[in-house]
Write a structure and sequence with these properties.
There is one protein chain. Strand 2 and strand 3 (about 40-45) form a beta hairpin. The protein has helices at about 15-20, 45-55, 90-100, 120-130, 145-150, 160-165, 225-235, 245-275, 290-335, 345-355, 365-460, 465-505; strands spanning about 20, 25-35, 40-45, 65-75, 85-90, 140, 170-180, 185-195, 205-210, 215-225. Helix content is about 60%, strand content about 15%. The chain has an eight-stranded mixed sheet, with helices on both faces. Strands 1-6 form a two-stranded parallel ribbon.
Length: about 500
């Protein structure tokens, strides 16, 4: 059988053991049910608190509650808070803001140059990268507690495969069936999201949505306090949309956009700096140490490779975002499809004529009509919410397209600037070679002038009375030597070029 998403497939013991690591600390839990004014927050620490909350506060899919239940699993190294029971989100956001006034979530952790070219860069960021590789896999509760959470939140086993693909961005959706605690099977939508860990602050998300009750269970892996604060702020403005299953994937996309926008700007600025450094003359290389020249070349290659890798990552993530838009349409046609209802007055009239002889009360029919009308109103609201999510995701996709074009322009610009630099260097080499050729010609002429005199000076060195003969022979043979050089080097060459040109001219 193929490795598709199976019904009632929770995390196995092998997944719990091999995929995830555990580091117990306090964890934030959010509950947003339809009818509540604000998201309610719990900070749970320890298995006893988790068991109590899951037993008393966690909504069940057989109780008719609708909304969102969310676990924000902190990443490694984040500070913990004392246990808190059921406080409004505004109070919890103030506590986070006071604890961490400002944090950056766009730190670079690695470059993508060849292994031999990134030793220096990796040395400066090795500490962050070491934690970044396992930050999403490391969970803030014990193995037994996480096993209980996955059971109550109906976490599907596919999240283990998604989290293991650390450097690949993912959004997946599948329709399966899950059984509740009473053994009743319900249609279920499972969503998994993953961002690449090529940069720090990567995230993962799994969501399980039950259309029959409108309840969504979500676990976000690798949350920092700044990400937790951002999620809670966005959720506080979406109480009416809390029951829509794509609300959290949409917020997930917004957070990833904030991370990548800063990365794109920093990477493009670095590459532009390296392009400008190409614009120097070869004379600037004179006196430069070989190590300094190699360092410059390494930085240029690294900046180019980083930008090319980033462009590919943006294209991959854009493809995943397009899947969200497609799934909005799927939900609109499968789950939130509107049905045509007859008017209550028509129903009453029809039932009045039909029930006169049967003596039934029409109040039940009126109540049924109102219930069906309420359900249709909810579907219409969910369709509107889905359209808002789709429009916003499409806007993010358009922004990514612009960033991808920026990266492509810089990568192509780097290649063009390198070609221009090499062309200018070749021209300089040709000019220098021409100057050397002229110098060698002068040396040759001087040699030819003095060569006959030197030769005859040796011959007549023993016959001093015949000095005039030495002068005569020297002058004659010097003229013969220069004339021969002129004839064979200049005259014959120019004559051949002239005759070739005349042959090429067509006769009129």
């Amino acid at each position: 059988m193929m490795d598709w998403d199976r019904d009632n497939a929770g995390l196995s013991e092998r997944d719990l053991e091999k995929v995830f690591k555990y580091e117990k600390k306090s964890t934030t839990v959010v509950r947003m049910l339809v009818g509540e004014k604000k998201p309610m927050i719990w900070s749970l620490d320890g298995s006893d608190e988790w068991e109590e909350w899951l037993q008393s506060e966690c909504p069940r899919i057989d109780q008719g509650s609708s909304g969102l239940v969310l676990v924000l699993a902190k990443r490694t190294g984040e500070p913990s808070f004392s246990s808190v029971k059921k406080v409004p989100s505004d109070d919890w956001i103030e506590r986070i803001s006071a604890a961490v006034p400002s944090r950056s979530n766009t730190q670079r952790t690695m470059t993508f140059a060849a292994a031999g070219e990134k030793v220096e860069t990796m040395t400066t960021s090795q500490g962050a990268n070491k934690n970044g590789q396992r930050s999403v896999r490391t969970l803030p509760f014990s193995k037994d507690t996480f096993r209980l959470i996955t059971t109550k939140f109906y976490v599907h086993s596919s999240i283990a495969r998604v989290i293991s693909r650390a450097d690949v961005p993912v959004f997946s959706s599948s329709k399966i069936r899950m059984q509740d605690e009473n053994g009743i099977s319900h249609p279920t939508y499972v969503y998994n999201c993953r961002t690449t860990n090529a940069w720090d602050m990567d995230l993962a998300l799994t969501a399980t949505y039950f259309p029959h009750c409108g309840l969504t269970f979500v676990v976000v892996f690798g949350c920092s306090l700044s990400v937790e604060e951002e999620i809670l702020k966005r959720l506080s403005f979406a109480m009416a949309e809390a029951a829509h299953p794509l609300l959290m994937p949409g917020i997930f996309a917004e957070i990833e956009r904030s991370r990548q926008v800063h990365i794109v700007e920093a990477t493009i600025d670095e590459l532009e700096t390296r392009i400008l450094l190409l614009d120097f003359q070869s004379s600037d290389m004179e006196g430069m140490l070989e190590s300094e020249a190699e360092k410059r070349n390494q930085e240029k290659r690294t900046a180019w490779l980083d930008t090319a890798y980033l462009r590919n990552a943006l294209i991959s993530w854009n493809t995943q975002l397009a899947k969200i838009c497609q799934h909005v349409d799927r939900l609109g046609s499968e789950v939130f499809k509107l049905t045509k209802l007859t008017s209550p007055s028509a129903n009453c009239k029809m039932n009045l004529e039909h029930n006169v002889d049967r003596g039934k009360d029409l109040q039940e029919d009126m109540e049924r009509d109102r219930t069906r009308k309420g359900l249709e109103d909810n579907k219409e609201m969910f369709q509107q919410t889905g359209q808002k999510i789709k429009d916003r995701i499409q806007g993010i996709i358009d922004e990514y397209d612009d960033k991808i074009r920026d990266c492509t322009m810089r990568v192509d610009g780097m290649a063009m600037a390198t070609q221009w630099s090499h062309g200018e260097t070749n021209v300089q080499i040709a000019l220098a070679t021409s100057r050397d050729s002229r110098h060698m010609r002068s040396i040759a002429i001087v040699t030819m002038v003095f060569l006959p005199g030197t030769f005859f000076a040796v011959s007549f060195s023993m016959v001093s009375p015949y000095f005039y003969i030495y002068v005569l022979f020297t002058v004659c043979f010097t003229l013969i030597t220069l004339g021969s050089w002129w004839y064979f080097v200049s005259y014959r060459h120019s004559s051949r070029q002239k005759s070739s040109l005349e042959e090429e001219i067509p006769l009129v």
